[in-house]
Design brief:
Strand content: 15-25%
Radius of gyration: 24 Å
Structural class: alpha/beta
Bound molecules: adenosine-5'-triphosphate, 6-O-phosphono-beta-D-fructofuranose, magnesium ion
Number of domains: 2
Largest sheet: 9 strands, mixed
Number of helices: 13
CATH architecture of the largest domain: 3-Layer(aba) Sandwich
Distance between the termini: 32 Å
Length: 440
């Protein structure tokens, strides 16, 4: 259970400098729409969860609100900022970079902002990466494109070398935009910064199309990626309905969490089956997927199956899952395996079938953010700048139940966000598809 201590945010020191934004904050109070900096946001949101702790309200676990402070830690005129993007692509990376640069320069008056190229390797001299000066002019229209203007990478780098680069460039604030691995890397940087007695704030903006960062409503780019995925589900459905025994099979990204598969399915409401890593399924047997699918195709003439890449890995034989440069598992292709097994099963039962396999893969994450995600990215960037200028460190900024909050990095990587097989989302998927609760 998350405790009060888990939610404590680290700061570099007292805020003694008047914020250039202070005037705008005078009339603010805690309402449904804002939380003042002196207030806290309760972690639990049901009576049973909060009541179960048996604590007075002021001792209940609570989060520090995000947003501007009246006084800040860093002197903007003397502050130098670094930005890095790491891990896989995600719609909105450029929006976040743009938002950070514009907020820092226009509202705080920070004049020295650099981007490190290609993830954490951009700090390490042997890669020979250049450093990019980021000005409002440079970033103004970068949100029109997907990807990241800074480039990104996977693969471990020595945090000592990262901090060497921060020292060489006199960086006071480092913004890291990335997923769980990136946040772990940032925690190593914070440790080395502390060991060297430096005052560098490290603030993260969590990025993942998989939506697997816990304790937050939704990661930026997720909505765009899942909207993009619906196009493949629609195409699969059209193909399936247009051929005798048509079966549209769509494989979507989602290594450990099936959020994209679930939401894209709900958005399109065309799929008959959704398979995700969190819910194991039997393939064979009377109550297995293949037999259910055969009956469905015979009854309705067609079917659509959506599968997340991490689902059903136990069926991929003879292949040890590989690892990428960061140590993340590289799964076998469950889509191809399903296609083969579906064809074999229906052929064996003399059922005509036409399987159309879609693997949109990188296409769903390399697009520019949609307007909702763009607005979200901008607000996350603002929150990250406010947090860093106020000397917060080893935190990510995020929206939780519609409030912007600071979440300590150790908590953000303490577990993964999963689709709960007993939760509301999976229930909605079962209602939408009509698939059995379990294939067993
Ligand atoms: N456990 C870890 N400790 C320190 N650094 C890490 C760790 N895991 C990953 N990193 C570093 O963080 C960077 C990005 O990690 P990774 O490739 O896992 O992507 P990610 O941030 O998790 O994003 P994605 O959602 O795309 O997986 C890499 O440079 C990697 O070396
Ligand atoms: O091929 P890459 O770039 O390593 O990324 C693939 C992985 O990245 C993710 O999109 C997460 O960022 C996963 O869904 C996917 O397995
Ligand atoms: Mg990751």
């Amino acid at each position: 259970m998350v405790s009060h201590e888990d939610l404590a945010v680290r700061t570099l020191g007292p805020c003694r400098i008047d914020s250039p934004l202070a005037e705008r904050l005078v009339a603010r109070e805690t309402t449904q729409h804002s939380v003042v900096e002196e207030d806290r946001i309760l972690f639990d949101d049901t009576i049973s969860m909060a009541g179960g702790r048996d604590l007075p309200v002021e001792q209940l676990p609570s989060l520090e609100p995000g947003g501007p402070r009246k006084r800040i830690y860093f002197d903007p005129a003397k502050t130098r900022v670094g930005i890095v993007t790491c891990g896989g692509l995600c719609p909105g990376l450029n929006d976040v970079i743009r938002g950070l640069v514009l907020e820092l320069s226009r509202h705080y008056g920070v004049r020295r902002i650099v981007g490190f190229r290609n993830g954490y390797r951009g700090f390490v001299p042997r890669y020979g990466e250049d450093v990019v000066d980021l000005t409002p002019e440079v970033v103004m229209h970068i949100d029109d494109e997907g990807g990241t203007i800074l480039g990104t990478s996977r693969g471990e780098q020595d945090p000592e070398e990262v901090v060497d680069a921060l020292e060489r460039l006199n960086i006071n604030i480092l913004f890291v935009i990335g997923g769980d691995g990136t946040i772990r890397g940032a925690m190593d940087v914070v440790r080395v910064v502390g060991e060297r007695g430096l005052k560098v704030a490290v603030v993260g903006i969590p990025k993942t199309i998989d939506n697997d960062i816990p304790y937050i409503d939704q990661s930026f780019g997720f909505q765009t990626a899942m909207a993009e995925a619906t196009k493949s589900i629609h195409a699969a459905s059209v193909e399936a309905r247009s051929a005798p025994g048509g079966i549209g099979l769509v494989k979507l990204m989602g290594r450990h969490s099936g959020f994209i598969a679930c939401y894209a399915t709900l958005a399109k409401d065309d799929a008959d089956y959704v398979l995700i890593p969190e819910v194991p399924f039997a393939l064979d047997g009377e109550r297995g997927l293949l037999e259910h699918l055969r009956q469905r195709v015979q009854e309705r003439g067609h079917a659509v199956v959506v599968v997340a890449e991490g689902a059903g890995q136990e069926y991929i034989e003879g292949e040890e899952p590989g690892r990428d440069a960061s140590g993340n598992v590289r799964f076998g292709d469950i889509g191809r395996l399903l296609r083969k097994r579906i064809v074999e099963h229906l052929d064996a039962h003399g059922v005509e079938n036409n399987v159309r396999y879609f693997d949109p893969s990188y296409a769903i994450r390399s697009v520019p953010a949609n307007p909702f995600d763009s607005a979200y990215c901008l607000r996350l960037a603002h929150a990250a700048v406010h947090a860093a200028m106020a000397g917060r460190t080893e935190v990510i900024v995020a929206r939780r139940r519609r409030r912007f909050v600071h979440i300590p990095m150790p908590l953000a990587v303490s577990r993964r966000n999963h689709v709960d097989p007993l939760g509301d989302l999976w229930l909605s998927v079962l209602e939408a598809t009509g698939q059995p609760v379990r294939f067993e």
